[in-house]
């Protein structure tokens, strides 16, 4: 086999000077530079499948990034992102400069993990035009180490994560099963708890991505339940993530492309290119998009779950519930949870679903959402088991919610069903959701630097360690601003350094972000 692998590795050489790095959610770059990385990721995930004797997964996507980019997300047998121990091996293999060196990395993995031969890998891709060639590279890498590549499918990232998790638990795992599980549970929740809910219209910006056809598949069933979905940016004309999508709406808080004729006040939502992020918004007459971001979705979810837990008989029996946030969480949302949802713990982690997911899994009910709309609610398996041991409305309701919410990874479709159910179950409109708390004005900027690796952080990314001295300068800027908060971190998905600033008013937040961005540029 080594000669075959070597031959194959030579077919997918690493471009000279390239050093691919496993970032926040796998490898990303301009699509043309990726074949070698994707081939090697195929081999890695087949070896991981072989080591654990379970199925793993690969999604070819660059999520919120532009059409010309692509990337690879690696899915563990649990359906979560690749185990952090394997990230270093992924880096070593992806960065090997010659086929011989890459082969040595493969042999090292096989020896360390006692892998005989590669296992089965499920492969999915989004709508990017570079997808099919990269899927071929992934399949070649899987086969090169004796693994079995499954035929590549057009799926959202969370669908593939869900399928891998279910398949390894010997549960039905097709796409039909996915829709049946999420929508079937949503139908039961709506008919049991909101039987006379009024029909609701929702306009969804699908970012011209894979979420569009998938949402279209669900729209008929949702319309029978009185949820009428109108999908805009469905990919028929506009470019992927260009002036639209969850990342655009969250960062710019402005009208996405295609929404020119949508009246102000209308309930709208936006997904990203691979449908793992969701934010809600309402257009205001000023042209400003009033945002309901991931923080607000998490608070809505916590309010719903708190209500269900308090309504149950024997409400004093303890259920540990927590919200996991990152430094991007608006300070007002954190303060609201700490002061008003006192039975809900708050935990902070670095950016990246891979970190939030693990922290959330420690709770009976762990709610995790990044401000950018990436998240889900996890129900601990031992807690779910206690639910099936008894009967009663609240137990069934929790159980159904655990089916609506993707238990493997953040999922925009789950998020949409959650928000719609929570609002109708609480009897709320968008006004009550808005009134929970007032966001502190904030601003996010991207700074292009020659080497983003020079920026390292600590304390869940709230403080810089290097470049030396920069953190003190950031703090000096923050001290000039009322209710100021600011942090700097390197992106793990784009070649930029990110600056986040928050302050008492928008002008101050903008000035703080700008001042710190200048410091970053000077230091870089
Ligand atoms: C990925 C991760 C998210 C993260 C985002 C931005 O999202 O899954 O957890 O928040 O990247 O990360 P960074 O600030 O490091 O660029 P997606 O939707 O792009 O896959």
From TrEMBL:
The protein's required cofactors: Mg(2+)
Residues annotated as domain Phosphoacetylglucosamine mutase AMG1: 174-279, 293-428
Q: Where is the Alpha-D-phosphohexomutase alpha/beta/alpha domain?
A: 52-90
Q: Pfam families recorded for this chain?
A: AMG1_II (PF21405), AMG1_III (PF21404), PGM_PMM_I (PF02878), PGM_PMM_IV (PF00408)
A single GO molecular function, which one? magnesium ion binding
Pathway the protein acts in: Nucleotide-sugar biosynthesis; UDP-N-acetyl-alpha-D-glucosamine biosynthesis; N-acetyl-alpha-D-glucosamine 1-phosphate from alpha-D-glucosamine 6-phosphate (route I): step 2/2
Q: Which positions does UniProt annotate for substrate binding?
A: 370-372, 489-493, 498
What does the cofactor field's note say? Binds 1 Mg(2+) ion per subunit.
Ranges for domain Alpha-D-phosphohexomutase C-terminal come to 446-517
Q: Which residues form the signal peptide?
A: none
> What is one GO biological process annotated to this record?
UDP-N-acetylglucosamine biosynthetic process
Enzyme Commission identifier(s)? 5.4.2.3
- Keywords, comma-separated and alphabetical: Isomerase, Magnesium, Metal-binding, Phosphoprotein
Q: Which domain of life is it from?
A: Eukaryota
Entry annotation: catalytic residues: 63
- Which residues are involved in binding Mg(2+)? 63, 272, 274, 276
PROSITE patterns to which the protein is assigned, alphabetical: PGM_PMM
Catalysis performed (reactions): N-acetyl-alpha-D-glucosamine 1-phosphate = N-acetyl-D-glucosamine 6-phosphate
Family from the record = Belongs to the phosphohexose mutase family.
Role, per record: Interconverts GlcNAc-6-P and GlcNAc-1-P.
PANTHER family xrefs: PHOSPHOACETYLGLUCOSAMINE MUTASE
Annotated protein name in UniProt: Phosphoacetylglucosamine mutase
- Species name for this entry? Apatococcus fuscideae
